[in-house]
Protein backbone atom coordinates (compact mmCIF):
# COMPACT_ATOMS: atom_id res chain seq x y z
CA UNK A 1 0.00 0.00 0.00
CA UNK A 2 1.29 3.50 -0.75
CA UNK A 3 1.47 6.30 1.79
CA UNK A 4 -1.75 8.29 1.43
CA UNK A 5 -2.29 11.85 2.52
CA UNK A 6 -5.02 12.02 5.19
CA UNK A 7 -8.49 12.66 3.78
CA UNK A 8 -8.65 15.96 5.58
CA UNK A 9 -6.05 17.63 7.72
CA UNK A 10 -8.67 18.87 10.17
CA UNK A 11 -7.85 20.74 13.34
CA UNK A 12 -8.16 18.37 16.28
CA UNK A 13 -10.61 19.72 18.87
CA UNK A 14 -12.98 18.53 21.59
CA UNK A 15 -12.78 15.35 23.60
CA UNK A 16 -10.49 12.51 22.62
CA UNK A 17 -10.76 9.19 24.47
CA UNK A 18 -7.39 7.63 25.29
CA UNK A 19 -8.50 4.08 24.64
CA UNK A 20 -7.86 0.93 26.63
CA UNK A 21 -6.47 -2.04 24.73
CA UNK A 22 -8.89 -4.96 24.69
CA UNK A 23 -7.10 -8.11 25.89
CA UNK A 24 -8.48 -11.63 26.21
CA UNK A 25 -8.30 -13.63 29.44
CA UNK A 26 -5.44 -15.53 27.72
CA UNK A 27 -3.49 -12.28 27.42
CA UNK A 28 -3.85 -11.74 23.65
CA UNK A 29 -5.12 -8.55 22.02
CA UNK A 30 -8.84 -8.78 21.30
CA UNK A 31 -9.74 -6.93 18.11
CA UNK A 32 -13.38 -8.03 18.20
CA UNK A 33 -14.30 -5.47 20.89
CA UNK A 34 -13.08 -2.44 18.95
CA UNK A 35 -16.24 -2.03 16.83
CA UNK A 36 -18.62 -2.08 19.84
CA UNK A 37 -16.16 0.13 21.76
CA UNK A 38 -16.39 2.81 19.05
CA UNK A 39 -20.20 2.65 19.03
CA UNK A 40 -20.25 2.96 22.82
CA UNK A 41 -17.97 6.03 22.82
CA UNK A 42 -20.03 7.73 20.17
CA UNK A 43 -23.50 6.86 21.40
CA UNK A 44 -23.09 6.78 25.18
CA UNK A 45 -20.33 9.34 25.72
CA UNK A 46 -20.62 11.67 22.73
CA UNK A 47 -16.87 11.23 22.16
CA UNK A 48 -15.88 11.39 18.49
CA UNK A 49 -12.10 11.09 18.55
CA UNK A 50 -9.79 8.38 19.83
CA UNK A 51 -6.15 8.30 20.84
CA UNK A 52 -5.03 4.69 20.47
CA UNK A 53 -2.01 2.77 21.75
CA UNK A 54 -1.18 5.48 24.27
CA UNK A 55 -0.50 5.23 27.99
CA UNK A 56 -4.01 4.00 28.80
CA UNK A 57 -3.67 1.55 25.90
CA UNK A 58 -0.50 0.10 27.50
CA UNK A 59 1.40 0.66 24.26
CA UNK A 60 4.82 0.14 25.80
CA UNK A 61 3.74 -3.36 26.89
CA UNK A 62 2.63 -4.31 23.36
CA UNK A 63 4.74 -5.65 20.52
CA UNK A 64 5.16 -3.61 17.33
CA UNK A 65 3.07 -6.19 15.49
CA UNK A 66 0.26 -5.98 18.05
CA UNK A 67 0.29 -2.19 17.83
CA UNK A 68 -0.04 -2.38 14.06
CA UNK A 69 -2.99 -4.78 14.26
CA UNK A 70 -4.72 -2.60 16.85
CA UNK A 71 -4.13 0.65 14.94
CA UNK A 72 -5.40 -0.92 11.76
CA UNK A 73 -8.59 -2.19 13.38
CA UNK A 74 -9.26 1.14 15.10
CA UNK A 75 -8.86 2.98 11.78
CA UNK A 76 -11.00 0.46 9.89
CA UNK A 77 -13.85 0.40 12.41
CA UNK A 78 -13.78 4.16 13.04
CA UNK A 79 -14.19 5.05 9.36
CA UNK A 80 -17.37 7.10 8.93
CA UNK A 81 -18.02 7.00 12.70
CA UNK A 82 -15.21 8.86 14.45
CA UNK A 83 -13.87 12.27 13.45
CA UNK A 84 -10.24 11.40 14.06
CA UNK A 85 -8.10 8.44 15.04
CA UNK A 86 -4.73 9.52 16.40
CA UNK A 87 -2.23 6.69 16.74
CA UNK A 88 0.49 6.94 19.33
CA UNK A 89 3.64 5.46 17.77
CA UNK A 90 6.31 6.23 20.36
CA UNK A 91 8.71 3.41 21.33
CA UNK A 92 12.09 3.28 22.99
CA UNK A 93 13.68 2.55 19.61
CA UNK A 94 13.70 5.15 16.83
CA UNK A 95 13.45 2.37 14.22
CA UNK A 96 10.32 0.88 15.80
CA UNK A 97 8.80 4.34 16.11
CA UNK A 98 9.49 5.08 12.44
CA UNK A 99 8.03 1.73 11.44
CA UNK A 100 4.82 2.47 13.33
CA UNK A 101 4.66 6.02 11.95
CA UNK A 102 5.02 4.69 8.39
CA UNK A 103 2.37 2.07 9.11
CA UNK A 104 -0.03 4.71 10.52
CA UNK A 105 0.26 6.58 7.23
CA UNK A 106 -0.44 3.41 5.26
CA UNK A 107 -3.63 2.69 7.21
CA UNK A 108 -4.76 6.31 6.82
CA UNK A 109 -4.76 7.31 10.46
CA UNK A 110 -5.65 10.97 10.98
CA UNK A 111 -2.49 11.73 12.89
CA UNK A 112 0.34 10.35 14.98
CA UNK A 113 1.63 11.27 18.39
CA UNK A 114 5.05 10.51 19.86
CA UNK A 115 6.29 10.49 23.45
CA UNK A 116 9.92 11.11 24.33
CA UNK A 117 11.99 7.93 24.59
CA UNK A 118 12.39 7.24 28.27
CA UNK A 119 15.18 4.70 28.81
CA UNK A 120 17.97 6.63 27.12
CA UNK A 121 16.43 10.07 27.48
CA UNK A 122 17.02 13.03 25.15
CA UNK A 123 19.42 15.36 26.92
CA UNK A 124 17.77 18.60 25.74
CA UNK A 125 14.84 20.05 23.81
CA UNK A 126 17.10 20.21 20.72
CA UNK A 127 17.88 16.50 20.92
CA UNK A 128 14.22 15.63 21.40
CA UNK A 129 13.30 17.82 18.40
CA UNK A 130 15.83 15.92 16.28
CA UNK A 131 14.33 12.59 17.43
CA UNK A 132 10.81 13.79 16.54
CA UNK A 133 12.06 15.04 13.17
CA UNK A 134 13.46 11.60 12.37
CA UNK A 135 10.12 10.01 13.26
CA UNK A 136 8.09 12.50 11.21
CA UNK A 137 10.30 11.85 8.17
CA UNK A 138 8.85 8.31 8.07
CA UNK A 139 5.32 9.71 7.66
CA UNK A 140 5.80 13.20 6.27
CA UNK A 141 2.17 13.79 5.26
CA UNK A 142 0.59 12.78 8.55
CA UNK A 143 -0.39 15.40 11.16
CA UNK A 144 2.16 15.05 13.94
CA UNK A 145 1.72 15.71 17.67
CA UNK A 146 4.31 15.72 20.42
CA UNK A 147 2.99 13.81 23.45
CA UNK A 148 4.30 15.47 26.61
CA UNK A 149 3.91 13.27 29.69
CA UNK A 150 6.86 13.93 32.01
CA UNK A 151 5.32 12.05 34.96
CA UNK A 152 5.71 8.84 32.95
CA UNK A 153 8.72 9.49 30.68
CA UNK A 154 10.81 11.50 33.12
CA UNK A 155 11.54 13.84 30.19
CA UNK A 156 10.47 17.28 31.32
CA UNK A 157 11.66 19.52 28.52
CA UNK A 158 10.11 22.97 28.23
CA UNK A 159 7.50 22.42 25.54
CA UNK A 160 7.48 26.02 24.37
CA UNK A 161 11.22 25.73 23.76
CA UNK A 162 10.74 22.41 21.95
CA UNK A 163 8.09 23.70 19.54
CA UNK A 164 9.73 27.04 18.77
CA UNK A 165 10.30 26.91 15.00
CA UNK A 166 9.56 23.17 14.87
CA UNK A 167 7.49 23.54 11.68
CA UNK A 168 10.73 24.33 9.81
CA UNK A 169 12.00 20.82 10.51
CA UNK A 170 8.63 19.06 10.83
CA UNK A 171 6.23 20.67 8.32
CA UNK A 172 3.51 18.20 9.39
CA UNK A 173 3.67 19.35 13.03
CA UNK A 174 0.15 20.07 14.30
CA UNK A 175 0.39 20.40 18.05
CA UNK A 176 0.90 18.94 21.48
CA UNK A 177 -0.86 16.51 23.77
CA UNK A 178 0.09 18.17 27.03
CA UNK A 179 -0.16 15.88 30.07
CA UNK A 180 1.50 18.06 32.63
CA UNK A 181 0.61 20.54 35.34
CA UNK A 182 2.88 23.41 34.26
CA UNK A 183 0.22 25.92 33.21
CA UNK A 184 2.86 28.53 32.42
CA UNK A 185 4.48 26.28 29.82
CA UNK A 186 1.01 25.29 28.55
CA UNK A 187 -0.02 28.93 28.17
CA UNK A 188 3.23 29.84 26.47
CA UNK A 189 2.67 27.06 23.93
CA UNK A 190 -0.89 28.15 23.21
CA UNK A 191 0.10 31.77 22.84
CA UNK A 192 2.76 31.02 20.21
CA UNK A 193 1.19 28.44 17.91
CA UNK A 194 -0.41 29.02 14.51
CA UNK A 195 -4.22 28.75 14.32
CA UNK A 196 -4.28 25.34 12.62
CA UNK A 197 -2.37 23.62 15.44
CA UNK A 198 -4.00 22.13 18.54
CA UNK A 199 -2.97 21.83 22.14
CA UNK A 200 -4.86 19.01 23.86
CA UNK A 201 -4.80 18.74 27.62
CA UNK A 202 -4.19 15.40 29.34
CA UNK A 203 -4.92 15.84 33.06
CA UNK A 204 -8.63 15.18 33.18
CA UNK A 205 -9.04 16.28 36.80
CA UNK A 206 -7.95 19.85 36.01
CA UNK A 207 -9.23 20.37 32.47
CA UNK A 208 -11.14 23.52 33.40
CA UNK A 209 -7.92 25.33 34.30
CA UNK A 210 -6.48 24.35 30.92
CA UNK A 211 -9.64 25.51 29.10
CA UNK A 212 -9.18 28.92 30.69
CA UNK A 213 -5.64 28.87 29.34
CA UNK A 214 -7.05 28.19 25.85
CA UNK A 215 -6.59 24.51 25.06
CA UNK A 216 -8.42 23.28 21.97
CA UNK A 217 -9.42 19.90 23.36
CA UNK A 218 -8.50 17.15 25.77
CA UNK A 219 -7.16 13.61 25.57
CA UNK A 220 -7.76 11.38 28.57
CA UNK A 221 -8.60 8.01 29.99
CA UNK A 222 -11.65 9.10 31.98
CA UNK A 223 -13.41 10.41 28.85
CA UNK A 224 -14.09 6.73 28.14
CA UNK A 225 -16.72 6.84 30.90
CA UNK A 226 -17.25 10.48 31.95
CA UNK A 227 -17.07 11.91 28.42
CA UNK A 228 -20.77 12.80 28.42
CA UNK A 229 -20.32 14.87 31.59
CA UNK A 230 -17.13 16.52 30.38
CA UNK A 231 -18.84 17.49 27.13
CA UNK A 232 -21.31 19.41 29.35
CA UNK A 233 -18.40 20.96 31.23
CA UNK A 234 -16.92 22.21 27.96
CA UNK A 235 -20.28 23.56 26.75
CA UNK A 236 -20.81 25.34 30.08
CA UNK A 237 -17.34 26.86 29.84
CA UNK A 238 -17.96 27.98 26.26
CA UNK A 239 -21.21 29.70 27.19
CA UNK A 240 -19.58 31.41 30.18
CA UNK A 241 -21.40 29.32 32.81
CA UNK A 242 -18.42 28.87 35.09
CA UNK A 243 -20.53 27.76 38.05
CA UNK A 244 -21.82 24.77 36.07
CA UNK A 245 -18.37 24.05 34.58
CA UNK A 246 -16.83 24.06 38.06
CA UNK A 247 -19.58 21.87 39.48
CA UNK A 248 -18.81 19.18 36.91
CA UNK A 249 -15.03 19.55 37.29
CA UNK A 250 -15.33 19.22 41.07
CA UNK A 251 -17.33 16.00 40.63
CA UNK A 252 -14.61 14.56 38.42
CA UNK A 253 -11.99 15.62 40.94
CA UNK A 254 -13.97 13.86 43.68
CA UNK A 255 -14.06 10.65 41.60
CA UNK A 256 -10.38 10.77 40.61
CA UNK A 257 -9.15 11.62 44.11
CA UNK A 258 -11.23 8.75 45.56
CA UNK A 259 -9.74 6.40 42.95
CA UNK A 260 -6.18 7.65 43.55
CA UNK A 261 -6.49 6.89 47.27
CA UNK A 262 -7.33 3.29 46.33
CA UNK A 263 -4.43 3.07 43.83
CA UNK A 264 -5.61 4.29 40.44
CA UNK A 265 -3.38 2.62 37.85
CA UNK A 266 -4.28 1.40 34.35
CA UNK A 267 -5.46 -1.95 35.77
CA UNK A 268 -7.95 -0.29 38.13
CA UNK A 269 -8.99 2.21 35.46
CA UNK A 270 -9.59 -0.56 32.93
CA UNK A 271 -11.71 -2.61 35.34
CA UNK A 272 -13.74 0.50 36.17
CA UNK A 273 -14.30 0.98 32.44
CA UNK A 274 -15.39 -2.67 32.09
CA UNK A 275 -17.87 -2.21 34.94
CA UNK A 276 -19.25 1.12 33.75
CA UNK A 277 -19.42 0.42 30.00
CA UNK A 278 -20.44 -3.24 30.01
CA UNK A 279 -17.72 -3.86 27.39
CA UNK A 280 -15.29 -6.72 28.00
CA UNK A 281 -11.89 -5.11 27.61
CA UNK A 282 -10.29 -7.82 29.71
CA UNK A 283 -7.38 -7.50 32.13
CA UNK A 284 -4.26 -5.36 31.74
CA UNK A 285 -0.94 -6.92 30.76
CA UNK A 286 1.91 -7.48 33.21
CA UNK A 287 3.60 -5.61 34.80
CA UNK A 288 0.27 -3.85 35.34
CA UNK A 289 -1.76 -5.99 37.71
CA UNK A 290 -5.45 -6.85 37.36
CA UNK A 291 -7.63 -4.88 39.70
CA UNK A 292 -9.16 -6.63 42.71
CA UNK A 293 -12.94 -6.73 42.06
CA UNK A 294 -13.76 -5.05 45.39
CA UNK A 295 -11.63 -2.03 44.53
CA UNK A 296 -13.28 -1.42 41.16
CA UNK A 297 -16.68 -1.93 42.76
CA UNK A 298 -15.94 0.71 45.41
CA UNK A 299 -14.96 3.20 42.69
CA UNK A 300 -18.04 2.32 40.66
CA UNK A 301 -20.22 2.93 43.71
CA UNK A 302 -18.52 6.29 44.15
CA UNK A 303 -19.20 7.05 40.47
CA UNK A 304 -22.88 6.10 40.90
CA UNK A 305 -23.20 8.39 43.92
CA UNK A 306 -21.55 11.32 42.11
CA UNK A 307 -23.37 10.82 38.80
CA UNK A 308 -26.73 9.25 39.71
CA UNK A 309 -28.81 8.26 36.64
C1 LIG B 1 -0.76 9.65 33.40
C2 LIG B 1 -2.02 9.27 32.68
O1 LIG B 1 -2.27 8.12 32.48
N1 LIG B 1 -2.77 10.27 32.28
C3 LIG B 1 -4.02 10.05 31.56
C4 LIG B 1 -5.14 10.83 32.21
O2 LIG B 1 -6.31 10.67 31.48
C5 LIG B 1 -5.36 10.33 33.64
O3 LIG B 1 -5.69 8.96 33.62
C6 LIG B 1 -6.46 11.13 34.31
O4 LIG B 1 -6.16 12.49 34.26
C7 LIG B 1 -6.68 10.67 35.76
O5 LIG B 1 -5.56 11.04 36.53
C8 LIG B 1 -3.87 10.50 30.11
O6 LIG B 1 -3.26 11.75 30.01
C9 LIG B 1 -3.11 9.43 29.37
C10 LIG B 1 -3.38 9.42 27.94
O7 LIG B 1 -3.93 10.32 27.38
C11 LIG B 1 -2.98 8.23 27.19
O8 LIG B 1 -3.52 7.18 27.47
O9 LIG B 1 -2.13 8.33 26.35
Task: Give a structural overview.
With about 300 residues, the protein is an alpha/beta fold. It has a single domain (about 15-240), classed as Aldolase class I (TIM Barrel, Alpha-Beta Barrel). Helices cover about 45% and strands about 10% of the residues. It contains 13 helices and eight strands. The protein has an eight-stranded parallel β-barrel, surrounded by six helices. The chain starts with 13 loop residues before the first strand and ends with a helix. The structure holds ligand SI3. The ligand CC(=O)N[C@@H]([C@@H](O)[C@H](O)[C@H](O)CO)[C@@H](O)CC(=O)C(=O)O binds near residues 54, 55, 179 and 256. The site of the ligand CC(=O)N[C@@H]([C@@H](O)[C@H](O)[C@H](O)CO)[C@@H](O)CC(=O)C(=O)O has 17 residues, from α5 and β8.
Rounded to an integer in angstroms, the radius of gyration calculated over CA atoms is 18 Å
Strand and helix order: EHEHEHEHEHHHEHEHEHHHH
- Biggest sheet strand order reads 1-2-3-4-5-6-7-8
Q: Tell me the helix content.
A: 40-55%
Assembly level = single chain
Unreliable sequence segments: 1-7
CATH class: Alpha Beta
Corresponding CATH superfamily: Aldolase class I
C-alpha geometry: globular
Number of strands: 8
Tally the helices: what do you get?
Answer: 13
Amino acid sequence: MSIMAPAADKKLTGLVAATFTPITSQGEINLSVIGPYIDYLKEKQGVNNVFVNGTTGESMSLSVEERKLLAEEWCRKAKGKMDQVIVHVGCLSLKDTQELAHHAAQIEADGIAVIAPSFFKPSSADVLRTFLQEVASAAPTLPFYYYHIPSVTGVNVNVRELIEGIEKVIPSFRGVKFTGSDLMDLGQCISCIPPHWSVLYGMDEQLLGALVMGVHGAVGSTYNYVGCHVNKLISAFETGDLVQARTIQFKIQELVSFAIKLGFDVGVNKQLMNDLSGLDLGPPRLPVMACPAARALAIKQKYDSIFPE
